[in-house]
Structure formats: C-alpha cells, structure tokens
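Task: sequence in, structure out. Protein: Tumor necrosis factor receptor superfamily, member 11b.
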Amino acid sequence: MRGTNRAGGTDRGGTSTNLFIFLLSVLICISSQEERTYVRTLPSGAKVVCDFCPPGSYQRSPCTLTRPTECRQCCGGFYTEFWNYVPVCLPCDPCEVNQEEKRPCTRFHNRVCQCKPGYFWHSHYCKKHTVCSLGEGVKTEGTPSKDTVCEPCANGHYAAGPEGNKRCTPYTAW
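Result:
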C-alpha cells in the first residue's frame, strides 16, 4: 500500500527510508568511534590504537600494547571540554577587574565571565559605559557587550534626572 510521507513524497512501505536511516546510524556510530581514538607510535616503532580521555578528564598514562589508556578526572578549577589525550587539565580563567561570573568553571568547561552592570567589553577589558552629556539622552542602553549610545535631545525634549542616565522626554505643560 502506498501513502504519502511527511515530506510529500511517496513511501513504498518504508523500506528505502528505513535502509537510509540504518546506514546513516551506522555511519554516525563509526565516525563517533573514530573521533574517540588515535594512533600512537611506541618507542619500538609499533603502532597502537589508544582511546582518548572523555571531557572532564586528562590522560594520566597512554595506552601500550598490553594496557589501555588511563584517564583521571580534572580537579576543581581545571577542565577539559573535548575528548583528548592532554597530560594535564586546563586551568579555568579567572574573571578580570569589573567582571562577574556568568557561568562557573566545571570539569567540563571553562568559566565564562561578563562585564558587571555599568561596564562593557572593549578591547580585552571592561570599560565604563559612556555617560551622556547635558542635553543628550540615552538612545540605546549599554549592555555587558555594548556601550551606551547617546543622542541629542530634539527641540521640546529634555533628559530628565541625573546627567547621563535618562532618555529624552517631551516637555509637558503644567
């Protein structure tokens, strides 16, 4: 019996679709296995296929002809993000001056920092947001990644409140 599949084509009992999905699954499985091993040349010249260590760990000792790869977990403040054969875990970056932690360091990923409120990232450091001058209002609020954008207030408008922090608003008659 023929029916219409979701893509609008004709399904002939699902045989070709099932075969395609099966072959795709096999290819994904094979490529996943290949990405988790590497070839190591021993001092004798013999080649051996070693396992990578999983994310969150490092290689304590490589494999030999008689022993598998030995991995150890990263300690606090250190991480590895990918399958690897590094001899030590990477140290997590500290947050810099005027930064705060957005995502903490774990065994599996580095710490992510962002600029504190009132600052934005500019050429490798957090810089204080621009303060709009007298007669100007905030066009776009600053973010941790972008500076404040100011604009002159149009005729009949003013920036109410402390200098640099307000949008231009129209004068109102009492």
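Residues 1-14, 23-34 have pLDDT under 50 and may be disordered.
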